[in-house]
Structure formats: structure tokens, C-alpha cells
Description:
Elements: E1 13-21, E2 25-32, E3 38-44, H1 55-66, E4 75-80, E5 93-98, H2 104-116, H3 129-148
Amino acid sequence: MIHYSTPRCVEEFDILNEVGKGTYGQVFKAIDKRTQQYVALKRVLLKNEKEGFPVTAVREIKILKRLQHENVVRMLDVVFAKPTDADKHRGSVYMVFEYMDHDLSGVLAYRSQRTADGGTGLSSGNLRPDEVKCIFLQVLRGLDYCHKHNV
Length: 151
């Protein structure tokens, strides 16, 4: 027997702020009201709504649903916003991800800022060799996992 769960609405999340914007969507930091967990909500851009849901988003969702690895950000759910005439973002689809405080560029930017402020004493925000090795190993482990799963 197939069990269908009730689709969740984006209204079940408190959106705190925008944390990023790109070609394929807009990302917000939010709190899941049900679990009190911080999450990242990625609003899927629907550029040509006449043509339906973007195939790139469908592909991304299918891939992310099957990936479970400590070095790959986890997609938790897909939620929607109910359409209304008053709000142009209603009817949108959102992918719910675990929230990460920083990506690699954020870590590097933070290091550069601390160095400029005199916080670490390291020249030009460079990472120490042991930090580079640790980060590189994490990237390689995540990449290896993705490749083994045909991503």
C-alpha cells in the first residue's frame, strides 16, 4: 500500500532573512515551526511558468533526495506556497535544506576579515596547511560520494 503524506506549506516556516540569490533560485534562512530547526529554503525560480515546473529543478530534487553523506548538504523536504493574487511568490516551490552557517567562500571571507582586523595574525587571510588539508579532504569525500552515485 502506498502512503502519501500531506504536502507542507512554506507558511509552516518562519523566514528570517535572505542568505543568497542565484540563477536558479533565492535562498532564505528560516526556522521550521514544527521542529524548531534552522533550515535553508531555496525558492525555485519559475521563469516560464507556462511550460510547467522546470526540468532542472525536478532533476535536482531527484538527485538530492537520494544523497545522504556528511559532506553533502542534505535536502529535507519540498514545500509550496499557496497562490494568491496579492503575493507574487505564492504558488512557489521551495526546497528545504539543512542549514549551514557558512559555505567555503564564507569561511575564507571571514578569515580575510579577521586578518584585516588584526584578529589572527595570519597574513592575507590564508588558511594554515592543516586547515587546507582538512577542508580539501571533506570536499574530496563529498565529491567521491557524489561520483559513486552518478552525480
